[in-house]
Amino acid sequence: MSKLNCWEVKKCGREENGPKIAELGVCLAATEAAVDGINAGKNGGRACWALAGTLCGGEVQATFAAKVGNCLDCEVYKLVEGEEGIDFIGAL
After folding, report:
1. Is 57 left (phi over 0), alpha (psi -120 to 50) or beta?
2. pLDDT tens, position by position, 43-58
3. Which of these, 25, 45, 57, 89, is most buried using a 10 Å CB contact count?
């Protein structure tokens, strides 16, 4: 079973070739190859909370420090943390 990336869980449409990229652009989480594979995700799809500038809840999220509080309550963060267990990477 493959593990879901944030855009698959949130259904935001901001992944590459997603239905909302004309309106909102492609999300950094979908394209940030430097973190590809972290928590078994594609690009930043399972480490979105650690990437500054992602769009969540319709607003651009700023730095890790500014957004981490919201991220800790996010269903994506909780899903990934639960699936990865002791191998979970929460900060980059």
Report:
1. left
2. 999 999 988 878 776 6
3. 45
In the prediction, which pLDDT does 63 show? 72
As a whole number of angstroms, the distance between CA 19 and CA 33 comes to: 21
Q: Measured between alpha carbons, how far is 67 from 2 in angstroms, rounded to an integer?
A: 27
- Choose among 87, 47, 49: nearest CA to 66: 49
> In the Cβ-directed half-sphere of 51, how many Cα atoms lie within 13 Å?
24
Helices (H) and strands (E) in the chain, counts: 5, 2
Q: Give the C-alpha separation, 17 to 74, whole Å.
A: 24
Q: What is the pLDDT of residue 57?
A: 67
- Report the distance separating Cα 19 and Cα 3, nearest Å: 21
